[in-house]
Amino acid sequence: MMAAGTEAPDSWYLALLGFAEHFRTSSPPKIRLCVHCLQAVFQFKPPQRVEARTHLQLGSVLYHHTKNSELARTHLEKAWFISQQVAQFEDVKFEAASLLSELYCQQNLVDSAKPLLRKAIQISQQTPYWHCRLLFQLAQLHTLEKDLVSACDLLGVGAEYARVVGSEYTRALFLLSKGMLLLMERKLQEVHPLLTLCGQIVETWQGNPIQKESLRVFFLVLQVTHYLDAGQVKSVKPCLKQLQQCIQTISTLHDDEILPSNSADLFHWLPKEHMCVLVYLVTVMHSMQAGYLEKAQKYTDKALMQLEKLKMLDCSPILSSFQVILLEHIIMCRLVTGHKATALQEISQVCQLCQQSPRLFSNHAAQLHTLLGLYCISVNCMDNAEAQFTTALRLTSHQELWTFIVTNLASVYIREGNRHQELYSLLERINPDQNFPVSSHCLRAAAFYIRGLLSFFQGRYNEAKRFLRETLKMSNAEDLNRLTACSLVLLGHIFYVLGNHRESNNMVVPAMQLASKIPDMSVQLWSSALLKDLNKACGNSMDAHEAAQMHQNFSQQLLQDHIAACSLPEHNLISWTEGPPPVQIQAQNGPTTSLASLL
Predict the structure, then answer these.
(1) Best label site of 246, 281, 362, 423, fewest CB within 10 Å?
(2) pLDDT tens digits, residue range 201-224?
(3) DSSP secondary structure letter of residue 230
């Protein structure tokens, strides 16, 4: 009897655990029954190890499968408290700390999560896997709070710890993560030596091929985004090509289930499928900046299709971030190619995604208002464009985005023609000749173009030519096709006004060819109007008729698209400037804007 009695709790425990797991993995999961089985364990007054593990299991099941976060928190707090009193119980102890701090963050109790993680980091130094994982977790928490300095410090500590415990792979992960944050902070002096070191570690590390290639993808993604941030569309091409080859290599490799011998190596940067979407994403960013808009469309379609498949199985928030960034880029492409109605529907789609996640909205609110501002320009609602850009400026602290918005707002003031004081105030802050606020080659070239546009409207043609030639020089150096096309057609217009028809033709013809290749509908419309007038002035009636026909076709396409966009209920988004995106958008009667000045 005694023997049977002493064995009973163990057998009861194993039976209850088995039932709990059976109910958890049922299809659909029977979470209530699973929880009942785990709670029954406490009836047997189990030893501390069993008690702590059961609290962890209950906390985990409640956290992941129910909305009862308070009860989950109670169980996780008990698991953390009891496990600290038990020797050699690292897995339960640190998993409880990790999960509990995650739950605290979800409940906006960040000030409870930080000391918990610090304590866990302090006592986990003999457990490499958990020590590294908890350092990553606390660094991520600081990053979400936009305290990038603290996050970088922790990642530096992690890199040194990984080196000491002989994990060059995880050292590279810490260093690359730090490099990513330094790029976000624009600390370029620190980024360059760090990326050089990372490159050396990645090349010399001999280990699991998928892990090695994923490090290389991380490294190359940082390099490519660094170039694109700097507006260097041509210089980035070799890196981008390497990145695309790298992802092809990864997709042919099989995931080996062989566990690394060093427990500190048990990390993956991103799943293979997420990396594929990310490479599509940076390719879209490059194509859009370079003005290869059909290519951008092709890769966006591929990426969004892949995302839809992934989101059926995976609710990772990074997938929604990828989706929003892809949509932001394709919306800008649509506005250029003359598909405003589609762009507006996609802006509404971004609004819906942001409604589902407050964090996504806080990270993308400024971009969303910027896109609405660009849409307003395209449908000639200049007052709304100004309101959208002003809202976006209020919401952003990102220097490149701030400069992009100011450049577009300046173009609105130039078109309105009566906002001289505000316009000059803006232009002083984005002077391409001195103290330009960012290092972006592309934005500086655009600032020269804006100056040229203003000088043209003021009739100061020689000054306009100087600015536009500067834009052309910069855009040709980095293959910025849209800026090249815009500068050529504006120079062509200036020469036409000055009566130099031959020189005007030399500018407008290549502008038209480039605009057709992009394709940029506004520049095509503008170029065809100029070609019609040029040919008429030169007595080439056949060519003038052909250009007039082209102009008529472009006008019709733009007019139909304009009416379609302004008739959509989503058009009312142009009035939204406060708070989160509106949940429902009321329909309205027909377009309320004029196309006259656009044509």
Answers:
(1) 362
(2) 999 988 888 889 999 999 999 999
(3) T
